[in-house]
Structure formats: C-alpha cells, structure tokens
Write a structure and sequence with these properties.
about 700 residues, mainly beta, Maltoporin, Chain A, 22-stranded antiparallel barrel, three-stranded antiparallel sheet, globular
C-alpha cells in the first residue's frame, strides 16, 4: 500500500511539474496578471508596459509557499503559518499532541481526549469522530497553498517492525497558474498495527482543492474523503500484567504487550466521511492609481480597492459509522438490545448554506473595522435503529432537523495597538430555536521601555442544544431517548505575553449550566480473575448536570535560553468544582531540555529530551461501542497519572529536508510501572525507536 501511494504522489507530482514548467514560461511572458486584466479593460497602455518590477529572476526557482484557511461562515481568507515547522518536529506525529496534553489508548491514531479542559474543542454533531481529530481536518482547519512555483512535500514516519509497528505517509502538492489561481491535493495514510492485541488503526484521507482570487470574484473549492477503521480490544484483561506481573499465573517478571490478553477481539469501528466545501464572493469597489518608477520610465498601476463584498458559503457532508462486534466472548456489555445483529450503524447528513454581506475594513480611514451580516440555513438528517429485539436487521428511522440562523461579525485586523474580532449568532427558527452564541477576542500591545507587552482577552456566551446523539441513540448495547435542556456556557480568559522574557501566562474561568456528558460503569474483570471483586459490565448513558459547574485554569509557558542550551516549559493548574461530573488532573506538566545549534552553517540540530507528567485522577474511561470517553461511576473507578513519560530525540534540518530519530518511553523498567497508563486499562506503548522525515520538492 505504501509503495502504491508513493507512486501515485510521485507520478502526479512529476507529471504536473513538467506541465507547470511550460506554464511558468508562458506566465512570465505576461507577468503581472492584474495588469493584463486592466489592459483588456483599457485602463493602462500597451500590453506588457505594466510589468511588475518585483518578479523573481528566471535563473532561480522561487521557493515561497504561503498557506491560508477559509472562514467556513463568511468565507474570509485567513493567513496561517506554513506546515514546515522545524522546532520540535519530532513531536509532530504524536497522537498525544505536540506538548503531550492528550490521553489516548496507546496506539498511533487511537481516540484521544485533552487533559487540559480549555484546549478541548466544541463537540460536533457527529460525536463519534471528535476523538479522532488527530487525523481528521475540517474545512475550517484545512490549509490551502499559494506558491510561486510547483511545490510538493512527502513525509514519512515509522516505529517498530512489520508485525507490531506503526507508519504514516503524507503527500502534499500545490501549484499556481499565475498569481490568482491555484490547485492542489493531499494524501494521508496511517497504519498502526499496535503492540497490544486487536488494537490496529488504518486511516486514509484524500483531499482535492482549487481556488481563483480575482479582483472582483473569488472562489474556493475543497473536497475531502476519509475512511477510518480501528480495531477495539477493550483494554487489557488484567492491569496486573503491567502493575504486578509476578502475581499472574505464569509468574513472569515482565510480559510483552502481545502476551497480555485483552477484553475484546474481532471488534471494529469504521467511519466513512465525505465533505464538500464551497466559498465564493463578489466584491464591489474601485481602481486606485499608483506609480512604479524605473530608471528610464514610470509605470502607472491600477490597484483594486474593495469596498464591500457579497459572500456565499456552502458545506455538505455525509458521515456514516459502523460498529462491528463479531466475538463478544467475555460478555463485555451489560445490555444487548439487538442480540441478532452484530453490526450497529448510523448515518448523518449535514447541509449548511450561508449568504451575507461584508463591509471591507480599511477601504476608508473613517471605516476602521470590517462588518459582516449573514443568514444561514442548516439541514441535518440522522438515521438510527428504531426497534428493540426481533430477528435479523431491525429497520431504521430517519430524524430530520432544520435551523435558520442569523449573525453578525465585527473585526479589526489593521490596528497597531488594538485588534479585535467579535461575532454574534442566534437561531430564529427550527429545532434549536432560542440557541445563540456571542464570542470575541481582542489583542492589546504596549511598549514598556525596550520591551513589548501584549495582552489578549477572549470569551464567549453560548446557549446551545446538546448534540443529537446525546438526545437520541439506539444501538446494540446502548439505547436512550433523552429530553435535555440547552447547555449554557460562559467563559472568560486572557493571556499576558512578554516576548523578551519568553513568557506567556494564560488564565480563564468557565461556568456551565446543564453540562451534558457520558457516564457509566467501566468494564471490570470477570469473577474468575478477581474473585474478590464483583463482576461489573460496561454500561454507558448520556447524563445532564442541571446545576452550575465551574472550571478554573491557568497555564504558564516559560522558556529559558543560555547560549545553545534551551529549556521550554508548560505548566497547567486547573480545578473542576465537581470531579464526579468533570474529572480533570490538577496539574499537567511538559518540559523540554535541549541543545540547538547549526553545524557547518547548513545543518540545524536539536538534541534533547522531554518529559510529560500529570497528577493522579479518575480519568475518563473509553467505550469502544461509542468511540467516546465517559466519566467513571461506581466503586470500581480507576485512577491514572503520577508517572513521568520521557523521550530522547535528535532533530535535524538540512536545506529541504527535516528528519529525526527518537527513543520513546526511555523510563520503561527504570521507574515504577504501576501508573504507566493514560486511560484506565490501556497501558502506553513500551520503549520504542521512532524516526521520521519530511522532504520539500520545488519545480
């Protein structure tokens, strides 16, 4: 499979590059696409007299890639940093995040959940893929490329062997036809075989995009296809294989992951996603003259100044999920509502259509900010099994929801001392009638002596309906129909940033009324393993906490530097007013100590080690039949935490190539292994050698 994907990328990339090389020469003969357009309108002199004096010399290939995202509501172009980061490149492929703040099941690409509450994303309607955000990219997060010459990138990551190792291959390609039009595609394939039994992950993502940005009309198109299949093992059958191996029947001092029995086998989750996104706009404005002086002549350019913009965005997606359970030999679940059906299935259709008008920021000195107003129609469709018992596949029922929303946005991005972005949105009619959202952020910049002090404030007030699947869910093992109130959330936070000191401090507080969550009884060991502990089977339900729930959190980012020695630190302290409803670790730490220097003026090197640690708490358990984390209830709750995870690495950058080697979990067998879990009954992978590279190609 890897060879096939690699061949596709290289074949398409090389073929298009040969075409693009010819196109570049044709484009260069008529440089300054905007001037050619104006020539046709009779606004400038003869063709070619408007040649841009900043064109790169043809003797070299320009290596300039810029990336941008598209606001999924109002279609605004948002410049973003390119995906070519060098610093801490070795952490890029980690499921537990760049700074290790995510808990997951151990294997690469397994479902994850942030231990830092304020870093958790808002849940979507299709909750089953929320925990797979390590791999899935939404239209709002997708990076379009704008490049002066055809650009492609190949990334590869590998750990372990062909029996239990993990691999990830990513290919990206982007090319422009002139300054206004670009196309590209991405391919991403992840395969984690898993060191523990029945825990493999196999994910594929393919995306195709294109855009055209003219003076008056602009359009952006994106299509993505995702297929994600992961095996579920329900955790190891007995934690003592890790915590106290001498007590097991075989009496070994240590057990290999493959020797530890698991609770489930022949059990899978499969998700299939199709997403199409369109953003287009038409601008009204005027042309403004400017001169460009050369040694022997003066050229007059006419730049288009947009005054207002009518926009339209459309997002359409279909998502389907199947839970396949062919060998539930341990009676893992409390309930079996569909005893004759080994496959659960649900389908989801989402259409969101938005139209609106924007008054452009900065076209006049009397208009210091941009203003947008829009209306959105949203259609949602869900299908679920709709009967209990019976023989064969039970029939499904389709649920339909509609919403009409209106909203507005106020944004200032050109201010030197103050920038802000505020929006408000409410549902006027439909299933979520009365729901609303008000949110915003602001940046302030002050100069104190030679230092620059930046303050950032953010917050929101949200009154929203819980996801459909919290209100209704029918499946083989879990079944509920709830009448839930809207969640009312209020959050305020702010950051203090002092670049000269390498310091950033964040603090925030959130109050939640009607907090909606999943809770249940974790699966415990059968009586024949733990005769002193009663048997407890997995049972999960959707709950709502009708009282107020508060979360207070503060995070300090502090970096130190002494010559080539660097020490980067992140420390989070957080408090939940009700740990039985929203359990959080009190402390979460990440520290990275390394040497960073350049060898022979061309090879950048980063050598060091990092550590991740969080305090003990009753972490959410994982429900395979839901692909979701849930709060543990009952007397058999399990704590995790208090164990340092340490990695050693060497990270290199040479011209167009980034590569690294890493020794993962170097503390294995050197510290007490009792707490080497991120999620109850799911031990992390043992010591493992990892490597990866990323290679850019130009022209």
């Amino acid at each position: 499979m890897r060879k096939i994907l690699f061949g596709i990328i290289m074949t398409l990339g090389i073929g298009y590059n040969l075409y693009a090389q010819q196109s570049i020469h044709r484009i260069d003969d008529n440089v300054g696409g905007s001037i050619t357009t104006l020539n046709q309108q009779g606004l400038v002199g003869e063709r070619g007299t408007g040649r841009d004096s900043t064109v790169v010399d043809r003797g070299g290939v320009p290596r300039d890639v810029r990336m941008f995202c598209i606001d999924p509501t109002i279609g605004t172009i948002i410049p973003v940093a390119t995906d070519t980061a060098i610093h801490n490149f070795q952490n890029l492929h980690f499921t537990d995040g760049m700074n290790g703040e995510y808990s997951h099941l151990g294997n690469m690409g397994s479902p994850r959940l942030s231990r830092i509450f304020f870093n958790r994303k808002n849940e979507g309607q299709f909750i089953f893929t929320d925990a797979l955000d390590f791999f899935i990219t939404t239209p709002a997060e997708f990076h379009f490329t704008d490049t002066k010459s055809p650009w492609s990138n190949i990334s590869y990551y590998r750990a372990g062997n062909k029996v239990n190792g993990e691999e990830r291959f990513k290919g990206r390609f982007g090319a422009n036809s002139g300054k206004r039009t670009g196309i590209g595609f991405n391919i991403d394939y992840l395969y984690g075989r898993g060191l523990y039994n029945h825990q493999s992950t196999a994910y594929f993502d393919g995306s195709l995009y294109g855009y055209h940005h003219a003076d008056r009309y602009g359009v952006n198109l994106l299509y993505s296809y995702d297929k994600l299949r992961l095996a579920e093992n329900g955790g190891i059958a007995d934690d003592r294989y890790v915590t106290n191996p001498e007590a097991m029947a075989q009496g070994k001092k240590t057990y290999r992951p493959a020797d530890m029995p698991t609770n489930l086998d022949r059990t899978w989750n499969e998700n299939l996603l199709h997403t199409a996104f369109l953003a287009q706009d038409y601008s009204l404005g005027y042309y403004k003259a400017r001169t460009d002086s050369l040694p022997d002549t003066t050229i007059v350019h006419y730049d288009f100044v947009a005054v207002s913009k009518a926009f339209h965005t459309l997002e359409a997606s279909t998502k389907s999920r199947r839970f396949i359970d062919y060998a539930n030999t341990r009676n893992y679940y409390t309930n079996n509502y569909l005893p004759y059906d080994s496959i659960d299935a649900t389908n989801y259709l989402h259409l969101r259509n938005t139209v609106g008008l924007t008054l452009i920021e900065g076209f006049n000195r009397w208009v210091p900010f941009g203003v947008s107003a829009y209306a959105t129609y949203e259609y949602l469709q869900f299908s679920l099994p709709d009967s209990i018992g019976g023989v064969g596949r039970d029939h499904t029922h389709t649920y339909k929801e509609n919403n009409l929303l209106v909203g507005g946005r106020l944004k200032r991005t050109m201010g030197k001392a103050l920038r802000f972005d505020a929006m408000a949105e409410t549902v006027l009619a439909g299933t979520d009638l009365g729901a609303f959202c008000i949110k915003g952020d602001a940046d302030f910049k002050f100069c104190i002596g030679n230092d620059t002090l930046r303050l950032r404030a953010e917050g929101y007030i949200r009154n929203e309906n819980p996801s459909f699947y919290y209100r209704h869910y029918h499946s083989q093992h879990y079944w509920w129909d709830n009448s839930l109130n809207k969640e009312f959330r209020t959050r305020f936070g702010g950051s203090l940033i002092i670049d000269h000191w390498r310091t950033r401090l964040y603090a925030g507080i959130e109050n939640i009324k009607n907090y909606t969550y999943l809770a249940g009884t974790p699966y415990m060991y059968p009586e024949d393993i733990y005769s002193t502990i009663p048997q407890s089977l997995s049972s999960v339900v959707a709950r709502q906490y009708n009282k107020n729930l508060q979360v207070v959190s503060t995070t300090l980012y502090q970096d130190f530097k002494l010559g080539i020695l660097h020490w980067d630190n992140e420390a989070t302290l957080q408090y939940s007013s009700n740990e039985e409803v929203l359990p959080l670790p009190l402390i979460n730490l990440y520290s990275n100590l390394y040497l960073q220097f350049t060898y022979a003026h061309v090879l950048r090197i980063q050598l060091g080690g990092d550590i991740r640690w969080f305090s003990r708490y009753y972490a959410p358990d994982y429900a395979p039949a839901l692909e979701q984390y849930f709060v543990q209830e009952g007397e058999q709750r399990t704590e995790v935490g208090g164990y340092p995870f340490i990695n050693a690495y060497a990270n290199f950058h040479l011209k167009q190539v980034r590569f690294y080697v890493m020794y993962h979990h170097v503390t294995q067998n050197t510290l007490r292994q009792t707490d080497s879990f991120l999620v109850p009954h799911y031990p992390i992978n043992p010591r493992l050698f990892k490597l990866g590279f990323s290679w850019n190609f130009w022209d």
